[in-house]
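Q: Joint fold for the lines below.
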Amino acid sequence: MFSKLRDKDNVKNTALFCQKHIFNKKNRCFYIRAIVLIVIGILCYYFVANNDNYYNRTIAKIISVSETEGNTKYIKNQQILAIIMNGNHKGEELKLKNTTSYSKISDLEYNVDDRIFVSITEDENNKIISSYISGYKRDKYLAYIAIIFAVLILLIGGFKGFKSLTSVIINILIFYSVIKLYMNGCNLWVITSVMSIIFIIISILIVSGINKKSLCAIVGTIISIIITMIITAIVVISTKSKGIYYEEMEFLMTSPDKIFFIGLMIGTIGGIMDIAITMSSSINELYYKNPDIDKKVLIKSGMEIGKDVMATMANTLVFVYISGSIPIILFWLRNRLSLSYIINIGINLEIIRALVGSIGVVISIPITMYISVILLKNSKIGVSDE
Amino acid sequence: MSVITILLIILFLLMVIVGGDRGLRSFFTLCFNFLVFFIMVILIANKFNPLIITIIMCIIISSITLFYINGVNKKTIASLISVTIVVLFTTLITYSMGMGAKIQGFGKEQYDSISSLSVYIKLNFTSIIICEILIGLLGAVIDVSISISSSMNEIYNNNSLITKKSLFNSGMNIGKDIIGTMTNTLLFAYISGFMALIIYFSSLNYTLADIINNKIFCSEVYQILCSGIGIILIIPITALITSEILYKNQ
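A: Joint structure:
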């Protein structure tokens, strides 16, 4: 009986708890936001999943697949029956063939309900005489992952998440316009330099607002990037680019070195900006908590923070760059290419990107710190306060 | 001497000058991680299960990075647990999506570089794309996680009267501050890697429809967005686990 009473009490308490916490104003806002975001997400996804009529290319939906084994047990032949989803032949059925291997390196395995692009040839009566698969329709999955990302960042990040999302979108638009301008014949060095400065200013202002610490971060980032690029240029020129092989950029029609160095600069910006914001905002925090703080103490604390972030940031860059080469490394290893060839020639560009990025990160620690101290304390380093 | 050797020496010197003893350890961590990365790739090439190997290696890399630089203590343990949870969670998300999008292997723009070798290498590339995504986001996730847990630890030590809930909220706030810069870091790093490809697309006049259905473009965007999802998820998870661990012995 006692336990029953307690149960009753518990139920009452839980109900009270619900009223108090789950349905209080802040949480209610959160739930409303969550529901609205998820509904918008589902609508977007539904639109992208059924956008066949907006494509000029013929799209077909697979309705059945039958498989037979190829000449070895690692290769399969697929006989596909598909139905056309758009255009003049909408509703017609097609028989298609596909070969797929176990590794799926340069081929795809199709399943029922997949949507594919098909190329068709017609005779004079507009009847289809032949057809083949020309590609796989991926836009639905792209929308899927983008929606999950957007919903999560807005849900967990709130207003700050919204700001980050805006800054990412603006940066993508700026990047897009760089490529467009380059295609129209502008000098790549000039536009990337100008755009990089715009990138930096906009990103930092969006993330940390218009104030003194943003100014410190912007100045720190720009100076650090210039120094990093000068160091890189000196190394490359003095060694006459010994050890740089542009194997993976062979498809480019213009000289790969120029594009590689511009990519190097853009890649370094992100890491340096991150460090610069961390440094300037923590020094700012230290200074405003105690405006009489001694310059030496400020510099010492700044360096401690810098040492904290150095390794993890360099690590981040190394993994981002190197992860992209996992498939090709595996492919080479299975084809019995030597490890020294892979490291020295195959992935040398990734290693250089990671090293230059890490150098930039380390350099930006003291640079941003001194700039913040100079701008905040309004005096020169090395001159005592008295 | 080649460019890589000189850059490596410059990085070593800079890390030691700026970071002293901790800088030296940071440099060795990078070397260790690079080594673990190659061990992982060699194991996968020898037909060990890619998913299991990747998850184990992710935990090893996180332990090296966290424990060697910051020591074994409550904040690093909290970070390690959070990173492991996020790695497992992201595996689930990427596995289901990556399968559908069929982004494994190489796109037709890369066929030139693989044409002279055999493509029937008896290695299933479907799960290798997930390995690629996980390794790409690992560094960022560790970074965000240790930033949050070490700041929460500072707050807790400076103000022992703080309640668990407000500590959790502080963790969330610190995390939200980091999202902006971290997403940008990843975006820039990934863009720099595939800038050449975008220029190639535009010089061949690919339409928008061609680009968004292109295999390489898709896999690149997947990597950026999955990393983004990883760093968003790590924020509440680290905040929760750190507050649990800090209050555990009370």
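Q: Anything notable?
A: Chain A touches chain B through 131 residues (CB under 8 Å). The two ends of chain A are 77 Å apart (CA to CA).
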